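Hi U.,

Before I forget, here's the chain from the pilot set. I'm dumping it here mostly so it's searchable later in email.
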Amino acid sequence: MSQAAAACRSSGSRSEAMKVKKGGGGAAGAGAAAPACTEEELRGRRAGISPEDVLGLQNITSDYLCTLEENVYKIDFTRFKIRDMESGTVLFEITKPPVSEREHDDKKDIDPNAGRFVRYQFTPAFLRLRQVGATVEFTVGDKPINNFRMIERHYFRDQLLKSFDFEFGFCIPSSKNTCEHIYEFPQLSEDLIQEMILHPYETQSDSFYFVDNKLVMHNKADYSYSGGP
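Structure:
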C-alpha cells in the first residue's frame, strides 16, 4: 500500500485532512497466508479480534463480529463517495444527516444496525473498471486514535474476490477527517462477470475497522450489477 498524496489543514480544535491512498491486498485468494478460521471461532475470542483473525476468514460473515458499543472512539462515517478514477464520474454518493437531525428521529422505529449496512446498485460496466476512488468523511470523539486500519473483503458466494487493506493513520481527538482510498480491482473472467450480473446481492463485503489491532467496528454491504433495483 502506498500513499499517493496527502494534504492537511487544521482549524481551531478540529482538524481536517485529505489523504489519498492506494489499496493493498492481493487478488482472489488473498489472505491465504493467515491461518484459516471460522466466524464461530472468532465469536469465542475473549481477547478481542485482530486483523490476522479476519484475514483467515474464508467466507462472508453471517452477522456482525462486534457490537456498536465497542466503538469507544465514537468514529462516525458521515459521507461516502465512489468515483471512476479514469473518467472522474461519480458512481455513488451518500451523506448522513447531521447529528441534530438524527437525534430527533423516532429511535423505536430505527434498526440500530441500519447505519452498518449499505446496498449498492451498479451497472454491469462497473465490473470492468480497473480503479475507483472511495472518499470517506468521518469524525472521531474525544480519544486520540492510533493505528486506525480497515480490512475489506469482497466475496461472490463463497469465493473471495479480493481483500483490501488500508491504513488511516493517526486521528487527533474531536477531528473531522477526509480520506480517499484507491481500489485496484482484479481482472475477472467473463463467465464470473456474467454470474455476478445474473445474481444480484450475492456479491457481498465485510469491512473491519481496527484501532491498535483490535476490532472496533464492522460494516457490511451487498452489491447488484444488473443496473436496477
